[in-house]
Specification:
By secondary structure, the protein is α/β, with parallel strands linked by helices. The chain is built from 13 helices and six strands. The chain has three domains: about 55 residues, no CATH class; about 110 residues, 3-Layer(aba) Sandwich (Trna Endonuclease, Chain: A, domain 1); about 55 residues, no CATH class.
Length: about 280
């Protein structure tokens, strides 16, 4: 039942409703596990509460982490991204405000396998890197990861609610790998590099935009590169500013789908449909 419930928060479950008015999976869940609710959204809230208490899957961690980060850093200059590719790894949540942070989630259902490789990739790009774990796994991860990686633990309060606590501070990464940085940028963003660095790529015979910009970046000051990375990523279309206005249980999915206000409102309207 818990595995089935966690599937309700998969991307496809929501996109099927939003794009095709397809409630097939939710109807199947409701038929298998009937409860007294009147709308699909009420059913999702019920599922979320069950998962929070009994089966803290990755969606629960991501969603609760977003809620915590919004409460602590939710200014107009802060942006979040879900599943941000860095080299051969994908960071679960990344955050940009005055600096860049990467968060890798390891739930009770995960293992430390590949973790040091993931964190090594992230540290080549982000100012600070964290793992997010259940509190009873602190000893395991504290002894097995590099000291520059911070540790955030999910704890359970006396009232049954969960909260996050920074158990080990992340050290600031002073370097930056230009090749990793370039792999995270889009073609149209390369042009911004050439403009900001004063490189006129169209004047280079037989120029290759990626090659010329990479060379220019490798000759630039590290602080310039960090500032450029922050500025460029924060320009991307993103719905972080909308997240606080949506139900807590759905914020991770709104971020994951990067829905505009119009589409997010449409999804909520469809989920309020009577069962």
């Amino acid at each position: 039942m818990l595995r089935d419930f966690s599937s309700a928060f998969m991307r496809t479950s929501f996109t099927n409703v939003l794009k095709y008015n397809d409630y097939t999976f939710y109807d199947w869940l409701i038929s298998e596990y009937p409860i007294k609710v009147t709308t699909y959204f009420e059913f999702l809230k019920y599922i979320y509460s069950v998962l929070s208490r009994n089966y803290r899957c990755e969606y629960i961690y991501k969603n609760e982490l977003i809620k915590s980060l919004l409460a602590k850093y939710g200014s107009s200059s802060t942006v979040f991204f879900n599943e941000f590719r860095v080299g051969n790894s994908i960071a679960d949540i990344v955050m940009f405000n005055g600096e860049s942070k990467a968060f890798e989630i390891k739930t009770e259902l995960d293992s430390p396998k590949r973790l040091n490789k993931q964190m090594s990739d992230y540290s080549r790009l982000f100012d600070r890197c964290y793992i997010v774990i259940p509190e009873n796994n602190y000893g395991l991860y504290n002894s097995s990861i590099e000291l520059n990686t911070g540790i955030i633990v999910m704890r359970k309060a006396n009232n049954g609610r969960f909260y996050f606590e920074e158990a080990r501070e992340a050290q600031q990464n002073t370097g930056l790998d230009v090749d990793v940085l370039m792999s995270c940028l889009r073609t149209d963003e390369y042009k911004g590099i050439s403009r900001d660095l004063g490189v006129h790529v169209d004047e280079v015979p037989g120029y290759d935009l990626f090659t010329v910009c990479t060379k220019a970046m490798k000759e630039a000051d590290i602080q310039f590169l960090k500032d450029y990375f922050l500025k460029t990523i924060k320009r991307r279309q993103n719905n972080t500013k909308l997240l606080k206005s949506y139900p807590t249980q759905l914020r991770q999915m709104m971020l994951c789908l990067n829905l505009s206000k119009r589409k997010a409102d449409k999804l909520l309207e469809k989920l309020e449909k009577a069962i």
